[in-house]
Specification:
seven-stranded mixed sheet, 806 residues, lipoprotein, transmembrane, cell membrane, alpha/beta, 24 helices, glycoprotein, receptor, 40% helix
């Protein structure tokens, strides 16, 4: 109800004239309110709007403060006819100034008399409370925003450590363990229902996203591998998204199938063209191995787990995928909703050659019989102990037959939300993969169990201890993670336009424990400082020292941080959507964990962690919990924009050195100038420094001031996504952490190709990439500083003049 609409309140002793006067005054106030658009604006809402197009399982998420756009339509157009009538001049315009003046004085006199009568009639009347029984539908009352008082940081740390227990985690292990929960299966759906049931028990709002995705399954006849005309063992494993065909060629052993391994072969004049390449599992993901081989025209790839890396049985099958990307490769860049109608398309990351996994037993049978020249030094440390591996001869013919079926699966992502008390429209997400090909204990069960336990712990702190998060937290359980983060990527594609302006961070719980000897993490540089401070506050699993003391050493970034790549589940969040992301894991320093096999069980994980899985899970939960609490507790987001300064400077330094070198050798024209790239780098340096100074000089208890600063911080990652490439063509658009010709790393590689006079070198293409990368960095600096292009153009021209003058 409008503030200007007063209910009828009868009062004894009131005169008829006073009541009439009050009604007229109400009408006047209503008119004035309409003239000045006085209708109060509703405060932030956190809506989950059910899709009413017939499918009740699909729910659209709305986490936005932009609900002001959903205004009532009452009254709109009621005066439309009046607007179309001819205009007639008022008679008032034809009267003399003296007449008009007298008319105005008469109106003022009547107004004063009426006001005095109303005032005198109300003086003797008892004041009565005015109440309204009119319901307010779909509207949040416009109350004054009050500060949200929450627990201090030391209290939150103590509560988290107390409430996050190994007993609850162990109980979750038992509840969410499953031997059959492949994406889209009844087992996967049963786990989704359990998780959403838990969220509801905790008092959380819940919803689910439904997608229809395409994946490969084994065909009616098993895939086959033949060596010299004979079938080699039983081929049970498979690689989803492999090309479905039968090919043959001479065998070639290529170590791990990395780019440097193939360069090594080329250096000793070994031709890859037409060969069936055998490579070990490990170091890089399956998709990168296949892409490297395909780029050199190999005919097929066989991947096996070598005993030097894997402690598994000789006949254990290996599963995986070979899509060089994430998400459903048959809907690249757009979501796989059932109502999505696009012409047939497929990702450029799908391989054109068949790929297949083989067991240790099958690999031993083939490798022990290979002829040809000996492999390079360091390539023969695996299963043929004491025997040099041969690279393979022309007579070592391998035939590969892949019969996988492409099928459509319905998958569900499920969500539970804890709404913030101040900025409900700003949210972070904690996510975990739910599906697996086999038991998937380390792959999915551990992460899912921690996801549910963290949701329980934080809701308990809110309900029983008075914790009030300022921003919202979403807990997400993803499906089809085994096929390359399909469920998570489809969600990102579905809400691409709004996520990086509302979602300020993502934390992954995938593969969080596979050993106990080392601690590794990958993250946005914005989150480095927060992770380091958190490691100092969390005790190691044996409680003798902090995580930082045990694993970080003197140079924590060198010891802990690793480059973010396609194998990390946070990669699409960071490089496709521009959301600051973090994942970490406890790992073994010696052997690779048997992900994607039937040996990914609780018993094997216990052996790999020296029977400290529960302690490691609690420690991991504390790290995620403290990072989360810090991001939703403080007024200011704990992200350091200055961290990107060194990353940009490092790339610019490499590019500058190589550009000058190529120009001296005559391979690059002198018209290629570093001025604008150096200027863009300087702009980011200054913008980051200015923001750090603004934070230092601000009142961090001022909610509105911190929100303005947070808006500037949140612009950084999204502004580093190249606006010059299409998400349908190049998914990972981040120029510093992504992949593709638009990245700064690609510029460095292109300069190397120009140096070597390679066929891929193209001066004009380099100039184009160089210019677009420069403007992307400058755009990020402008967004961080809040500058307009005109401001920057003026400053650059001024700097150029001063440079030329000097």
């Amino acid at each position: 109800m409008h503030a200007s609409q007063s209910p009828w309140v009868s009062k004894q002793g009131r005169s008829l004239r006073a009541l009439v006067f009050e009604a007229r005054m109400d009408q006047a106030r209503t008119t004035i309110s309409k003239i000045f658009n006085g209708e109060p604006r509703s405060y932030t809402r956190f809506n989950l709007t059910q899709n009413m197009e017939g499918d009740n399982s699909h729910v659209e998420m709305k986490l936005s403060s932009d609900m002001d756009d959903e205004v009532e339509a009452n009254g709109v157009g009621e005066n439309t006819n009046q607007l179309n009538r001819p205009y007639y001049p008022s008679k008032m315009n034809q009267r003399s100034p003296k007449t008009v003046c007298g008319f105005v004085i008469g109106i003022l006199f009547l107004f004063i008399i009426g006001y005095l009568i109303g005032y005198l009639s109300n003086r003797s009347t008892d004041k009565t409370e005015i109440k309204s029984d009119c319901p307010v539908v779909n509207e949040i009352a416009p109350v004054k925003a009050e500060p949200v008082y929450s627990l201090d940081w030391s209290d939150l740390r103590a509560l988290l450590k107390k409430k996050l227990t190994t007993d609850n985690i162990n109980s979750n292990f038992k509840e969410f363990s499953s031997t059959s929960h492949q994406a889209g299966s009844p087992g996967d759906e049963a786990l989704a229902n359990k998780i959403i049931g838990k969220f509801k028990t905790f008092g959380m709002s819940t919803w689910n996203d439904e997608h229809y995705v395409k994946v490969h399954e084994p065909g009616s006849s098993n895939n086959k591998v033949l060596f010299r005309g004979n079938v080699v063992g039983t081929t049970e494993g498979y690689l989803s998204y492999s090309a479905v065909k039968t090919v043959q060629g001479a065998a070639l052993y290529a170590h791990y199938g990395r780019a440097e391994d193939f360069r090594r072969l080329q250096e000793i004049n070994v031709d890859v063209n037409g060969k069936v390449v055998l490579v070990r599992a490990g170091l890089i993901n399956f998709a990168e191995k296949v892409a490297n081989a395909a780029s050199l025209n190999a005919s097929a790839v066989l991947i096996y787990p070598d005993p030097v890396n894997y402690s598994i049985k000789d006949n254990t099958a290996l599963f995986g995928h070979v899509h060089l990307g994430t998400g459903d490769p048959y809907t690249p860049g757009f979501p796989s909703f059932n109502h999505t109608q696009f012409p047939p398309a497929q990702s450029s990351g799908l391989p054109s050659i068949p790929a297949q996994t083989i067991t240790i037993s099958q690999a031993t049978e083939i490798m022990s019989q290979l002829e040809g020249r000996s492999s390079p030094n360091g390539w023969s440390d695996g299963m043929l102990s004491g025997t040099m591996y041969n690279l393979g001869g022309d007579g070592d013919i391998i035939k590969v037959e892949v019969n996988n079926n492409l099928v459509q699966k319905k998958i569900h992502n499920v969500f539970g939300v804890i709404k913030g008390y101040m900025d409900a429209d700003r949210y972070m997400v904690i996510g975990a993969q739910r599906d697996a090909w086999g038991p998937g204990f380390a792959r999915s069960t551990v992460g899912t169990s921690l996801l549910v336990e963290l949701a329980r712990t934080i809701t308990d702190m809110i309900q029983n201890d008075g914790f009030k998060p300022k921003r919202s937290i979403i807990f997400a359980s993803w499906s089809a993670g085994e096929f390359g983060g399909v469920g998570a990527t489809e969600w990102l594609e579905g809400y691409l336009t709004s996520l990086n302006s509302k979602m300020f961070s993502y934390i992954s719980l995938d593969e969080i424990i596979s050993g106990s000897e080392s601690f590794k993490a990958t993250a946005s540089p914005l989150l480095y400082d927060l992770l380091e401070s958190t490691m100092k506050q969390v005790s190691s699993p044996d409680a003798t020292k902090s995580l930082h003391e045990q694993f970080a050493g003197s140079n924590w970034e060198k010891s802990v941080m690793e480059p973010m790549g396609l194998s990390h589940s946070v990669y699409p969040f960071q490089t496709f959507s521009g959301i600051p992301s973090l994942s970490f894991r406890f790992i073994s320093s010696s052997n690779s964990y048997p992900y994607g096999t039937v040996e990914d069980t609780e018993q094997n994980l216990d052996r790999c962690t020296s029977y400290s899985t529960l302690k490691l899970a609690k420690t991991a939960g504390e790290v995620v919990g403290l990072v989360t609490l810090r991001l939703v507790h403080d007024h200011l987001l704990k992200m350091n924009v200055a961290k990107y300064t060194s990353v940009i400077r490092n790339y610019v330094s490499q590019i500058r050195s190589k550009v000058e070198s190529r120009q001296m050798s005559g391979r690059l024209p002198s018209t290629v100038t570093m001025q604008w790239l150096l200027s863009a780098q300087g702009s980011y340096d200054r913008a980051a420094s200015a923001l750090v100074l603004a934070i230092r000089n601000s009142d961090l208890e001022d909610m509105e001031q911190c929100r303005i600063l947070n808006n500037r911080i949140m612009r950084v990652e999204g502004s580093l996504l190249s606006p010059y490439v299409s998400p349908r063509q190049i998914l990972f658009r981040h120029i510093l952490l992504g992949s593709g010709s638009h990245t700064l790393a690609a510029l460095v590689d292109h300069l190397e190709a120009i140096k070597g006079g390679l066929e891929s070198a193209d001066i004009d293409q380099f100039k184009n990439q160089f210019a677009l990368a420069t403007w992307t960095i400058q755009g990020c600096a402008n967004a961080l500083a809040g500058e307009s292009p005109d401001t920057w153009r003026y400053r650059v021209n001024t700097e150029s003049d001063s440079c030329s003058g000097s």
